[in-house]
Amino acid sequence: MVESGDVSGDRFDDDGREKRTGTLVTASAHIITAVVGSGVLSLSWAIAQLGWLAGTVILVTFAIINYYTSTMLADCYRSPDADDVPGTRNYTYMGVVRAYLGGRKVQLYGLAQYASLVGITVGYTITASISLVAIGKANCYHNKGHGAKCSSSNYPSMAAFGVVQILLSQIPNFHQLSFLSIIATVMSFCYASIGIGLSIAKVISGKVGKTALTGTVVGVDVTASDKLWRSFQAVGDIAFSYSYSIVLVEIQDTLKSSPPENKVMKKASLAGVSTTTAFYILCGCMGYAAFGNKAPGDLLTEFGFYDPYWLVDFANACIVLHLVAAYQVFAQPIFQFVEKKCNKKWPESKFITSEHSMSIPLIGKCRINLFRLLWRTAYVILTTVVAMIFPFFNAILGLIGSCAFWPLTVYFPVAMHIAQTKVKKYSLRWMGLELLVLLCLIVSLLAALGSIVGLISSVKAYKPFRNVN
């Protein structure tokens, strides 16, 4: 609880909430942390399925769509908003939907967002474990030769990742994640640059795979049905690689009130999307140029590269560190939602509302809340167990991306923009926006279908809790 005498102090904003200190740099770091994730390493595989032309065009198209709709969402942060009189802040994406659309759409949005957030945290647990295992395998291949049987279970790595997340999950809110996001941004540039560099070195060596304008060749690389389903799944992978609209409002809520949050957020979105798109095109295209139609699903963990083994180890360590932070970026909205609901329902419960100060060696004084400790620990354990049951990397990436892309990146931002700016029904602008929504829905459905087919084939060959890589 905030005492009335403290509201006007340096610690709090004029609405009594903790004072915001975010800037263009921290917002850009949050975006890059959310965007440049595990998906970047599957882009060479995605382009191999789609080909040079379609793969590159789809990458750029998704980047433009994401930036365009993110500007709409940024303008909806305050409601109603005007140039001369700023509106009321909406602290979460759900709050924005409630302010502009209301009714049943709030529940539909909540289902879409929180299911996607849970899916992303599960996916990051899987990916981090794969990278941890890859470090051990790289050392094994170096010592015993590339033909050695270097298999290892993912489960200890998933458990270790879960333990780290239990500790980091006690960070109270989004405002205190900036240091993690900056570290993660550096890590993401490191491993993406290493993947690009190793791909360029392979291209220069001349030992490259066969490429084609349309990607994998039916009858040579894949069957006709595989070509179709994998192409759909590849579109889902690309959609996932830009999934940050889901936490955009929460990131915007960390920004200082001056200059206006929406203007800073648009600049941060442009910086984040343009930077990551450049990396995506380089990583995806150079990876495809190096490996051709046989491009692995993950450049660094499926051992497209064996040497220099220490560099592959370092790149995988960077991936793990990045995902440690990215998990928190996507988990915080879930934590805040549940805790806000419980605080509202049981405001007198000391178990839920009381904060306890505790000194921790090497860290210093920390605020501990028993409910936060137990609930967040339980959440991390749940996502870790789910990751252990369903460790299918590419198919899960595609399914999460396709399911989250349409409602959260396209439908809700467009619907709220139409409501906010009062776009006249059946006008040219209204029809253009509705056409964008329809086309993106078709793309999302096809991508989800391809990912489901990929998951089914993976499930057939999988035995729970016996998986090794």
Proportion in β-strands: under 5%
Are there runs of 5+ residues with pLDDT below 50, and where?
Answer: 1-8
- Global structural class: mainly alpha
In the sheet with the most strands, the strands line up as: 1-2
Distance between the termini: 49 Å
- What helical percentage do the residues reach? 55-70%
Query: How would a crystallographer describe the biggest sheet?
Result: 2 strands, antiparallel
Helix count equals 14
The number of strands is 4
Helix/strand order: HHEEHHHHHHHHHEEHHH
Average pLDDT, to the nearest integer?
81
User: Cα-atom Rg, whole angstroms?
Assistant: 23 Å
Query: What global shape is seen?
Result: globular
Protein name: Amino acid permease 8-like
Main location: membrane
Keywords: Amino-acid transport, Membrane, Transmembrane, Transmembrane helix, Transport
Subcellular location: Membrane
Structural account:
By secondary structure, this protein is mainly α. The protein has 14 helices and 4 strands. Strand 3 and strand 4 (364-368) form a beta hairpin. Keywords: Amino-acid transport, Membrane, Transmembrane, Transmembrane helix, Transport. The chain crosses the membrane at residues 24-43, 50-69, 114-135, 177-201, 268-289, 309-330, 373-390, 396-414, 435-459.
Structural descriptors:
mainly alpha; single chain; two-stranded antiparallel sheet; 469 residues
SSE layout:
Layout (H helix, E strand, L loop, with lengths): L23 H12 L7 H33 L2 E2 L8 E2 L3 H8 L3 H41 L10 H14 L9 H28 L18 H17 L7 H5 L8 H31 L17 H37 L4 H4 L2 E5 L3 E5 L1 H20 L3 H29 L6 H33 L9
Helix pairs in contact: 1-6, 1-9, 2-7, 2-9, 2-13, 3-4, 4-5, 4-10, 4-12, 4-13, 5-12, 6-9, 6-10, 7-13, 7-14, 13-14
Organism: Camelina sativa (False flax)
Pfam family, one: Aa_trans
Subcellular location: Membrane
